[in-house]
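Box 4.2: Ligand-aware structure prediction
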Amino acid sequence: MTTLFRSADERRREIQTHAASIGIDEDYISTLVDSFYARVRADETLGPIFEAEIGDGWAHHLARMKDFWASVAMNAGRYSGQPVPAHQKLAQVHIGHFAIWLRLFRETLSETAPSTEAVVYFLERAERIARSLQMAMFGETLTGGAPNLQG
Ligand code: HEM
């Protein structure tokens, strides 16, 4: 058991060291999430969907999304939600909205990311998760992206 726990810790340290080497840390994740959702809220198509669902709960949503991205990008282990049911209940979302979501995410990264490697690192993960959400919600995916690089 001890060995298992130690190797999980080592793995987390390796991931965080690699992320840090391309400029990804908690501060950048906070900037990324704040900038991305500012863009989402200003978008004529996605903005109203998020406002209707989140209402005055933005502080909570942003904090949860920072935990989510810290877990995805840095293996922080702080997020324990369930993205699939959270999206399946959103009746107003259709499959074409994912391309808009990804465009806004790409634009945010190109304006804020600390390095080109960091852009690629986040985009690969966002595209993969976007595809699995589309599969769960609609049984197909309309957005492309890198093949599953995590095996
Ligand atoms: C058209 C695309 C999308 C729309 C309209 C959308 C909308 C939303 C909304 C309204 C919520 C809040 C749900 C609630 O509070 O109950 C939410 C939660 C969330 N979204 Fe999305 N989303 C989209 C795509 C994505 C993608 C591509 C990702 C990840 C890369 C993502 C990750 C999450 C996560 C982690 C949560 C929190 C779920 C939870 O823990 O309850 N979303 N989304």
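In the box above, the bound molecule is protoporphyrin IX containing FE. The pocket of protoporphyrin IX containing FE is lined by residues 46, 49-50, 53-54, 64, 68, 81, 83, 86-87, 90, 93, 97-98, 101, 126, 129-130, 133 (CB under 6 Å).
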